[in-house]
Structure formats: structure tokens, C-alpha cells
Amino acid sequence: MMRRIGIAVSAGALALLLGCADLRHDPSPDGSGDLGLVIGRSNGTLTVINTSSKRALGAIEGLGDLSHASVVYSRDGGHAYVFGRDGALTRVNLLARRIEARVQQAGNSIGGAISQDGTLVAAQNYQPGGIKVFDARTLALVADIPAEVAPGKTSRVVGLAELPGRRFIYSLFDADQIWIADLSQPGAPRLTKFENIGHQPYDALLTPDGRHYIAGLFGEDGLALIDLWEASPKVRKILAGYGRGEQALPVFKMPHLRGWAVAGRHAWLPAIGRHEVLVVDTESWTEVARIPVAGQPVFVMAQPDGRQVWVNFAVPDYHRVQVIDTQKRRIVKTLEPGAAVLHLEFTPRGEAVWISSRDANHVSVIDTASFDTLATLAIESPSGIFFSSRAAKLGL
Fold this sequence. Notes:
The chain is mainly β. Helices cover about 5% and strands about 50% of the residues. A four-stranded antiparallel beta sheet has the order 3-2-1-34, with no helix packed on it. The radius of gyration is 23 Å and the shape is globular.
């Protein structure tokens, strides 16, 4: 009798296990760590993509003006915060592919950041100038910090990045200043202001270790640097006069520093008004080389292992991408993935790079070793590409 019961129990357990095995073979959602978003510049649409299968999974519509949109991610990589040019801030769920919250927070905005602990999202605004800080879960307004530099006058804000301890650092284009906003007590933000940092800071980067904040200067040759590890940080000018004695070329599109082009101990930076990439030693912050390139560089982005730096360009050379070998300090490949290359994004371990070609209406996936095209995705007017792996990186 007991033996028959034991057999029955074993059979039941086996059936349960088989049932579980069947469930495991059912289709399941992708994990958030393998996903990303491609901005549809002309139609207010996000395309959700999978970086391993190299395919589009679906679209999220209704995001308004995405002509200069950018994205940051929640700590779990499953939610993205989209900053539209029209001043809208939208929280989207990548797995469900839907909008979860949306606020019209300004009239003109060009990006934002998420706090180190993932609880606060800050938007940097042109109109009205300043930053606004929101609860990351609900998008309820937490703080409104105008970039007021004189009675009735505000500055456009650029180069926003998060710092440890619920702090944000950003530059004031119209005031030649850098501010740090401490939101450790969100209801009473504290500001630290650095003045006369150089003329017209237009963008900035935070080095991968979070130590140095570097703002590019549109109004003069040079960059402003702050060592945030110092007890009393001060602004220091680096690369002053890098184009001294030479006629500056027309600037058709502002370069971007947010590509984290730091490879090993060197930073690779676009030179304003020049067809060159500057190579800078990050110990001494002095120029050690400059690389002639095909045109005016816009994004200068380092592969995750730092072995290569990839560069795209403003018009009339915006159909090209050039690859620089960081050891040889020379161009090793020129690619033409499609008209109007707007952005590049490396997969987390760097085996491939995704490149958007706005006027060709596609995104190319390129093997970084062979330079072969692995896939081409048809996407209308693609611009920014943002992978969820950004969730684990400083300054993105």
C-alpha cells in the first residue's frame, strides 16, 4: 500500500516538474539589461530594441517633439526618462512598451540626469532657464531652481550630470558659470556656484570615475575643469588657445562631450572650429596629440575597452564615421553607414556599435572588429540611441 502511494506521489511530482519544464519553454519577456531605445526624431516615437538579437521589439508613441531628445535610465534598467525638446518629461516602461507618466515641465529642454540613488530626475532647461527636479517614480515636482543670474534674467542650462549624494552639476551657457545643486534635502536645495569659468560653456562630461567635470567652451578655445575630489574644488582652464593663430572654421553643429571619450589615461575631445580630435592626458590635463579627421567632429565616443574611438561629423561630412586606433593614434577605418549620422552607441561589452542615419531612415549595427554590417533596422528618422546599460554608469 505504502509503495503504491509512493509511486503515485512520484508520478505527481514528475507531472509537476514536466509542467514547470513546459512553462520554462514558453515565450517570456526580454530582460531589461538587453534593451535600448532609438529616438524617432520626426514622429515622436521610441523604438525598443534588443542588442543581442539585433532587432526592433516594438514602438512607444506619443512623445511629442523629440528633435533633440535624450534618455536616462532607472537603476533597474527597465524604465527610461525621456527629455523632449518641447520641455516634456516622460517615464516609459521598456518591458511593457508604454508611457507610465508624463509632465510638461518647460518650454524648451535639451536633456537631464537621474540621481545616484535613482530617486530624483532632473531636467535641464533653456526656457525657462534652470533645472527642475522630480520624483523618479511619480514625476511629482520636488524642486524648481531657476538659473537666475540677474534680476529677471535667466541662463540656458547645459551639461547636467549627477554627483554622489543627491547632487547635480550643470553649466550656465549665458552666464559663464557652473553650479552644483545639493538635493539631499529636496525641499531646501543648496547651491554652490563657480563664476567666470570661461565663455559660453556649451556641454560637459563627467569622467567615468566621477572625479572630473569638464565643460567645453564655445566662446573661446579651451575647456573648464573641476576636480570634484578636492576638499575645496576650483575651476581650472585646460587646453587654452588650442587653435591659437589659426582661422576657426564655421561651426555647423555643436560638438557633444557626453560620449565619455575617455580611453585609458587619455581623453579624446572634439575641437571646436577645427577638423581635429584632441588627445589629452588625464593626469596632467595637457594636450599630447591631435588627430586630423574628415570634418567637424560632433560625437567622439570611446569603445568600452578603450581600444578604439569612433567619430561622426557635422555637415557636409555627416555621412561618414571614422575609427581611430588609440594606441597608434591614427584613423584605421572610414565608414559610410548612411546619410546624416546622428549618434553612435556601443553594446555594453563593445563587440558592436549601433549607428543612426537619419536621412537614410535606418540604424546600422557594425562589428567593431571586422567593421562588417551585422544588421540594418528600418526606423523612420532615427537620432539618439540609448541602451539600458547606461543605468550602471556615471554621467549618462
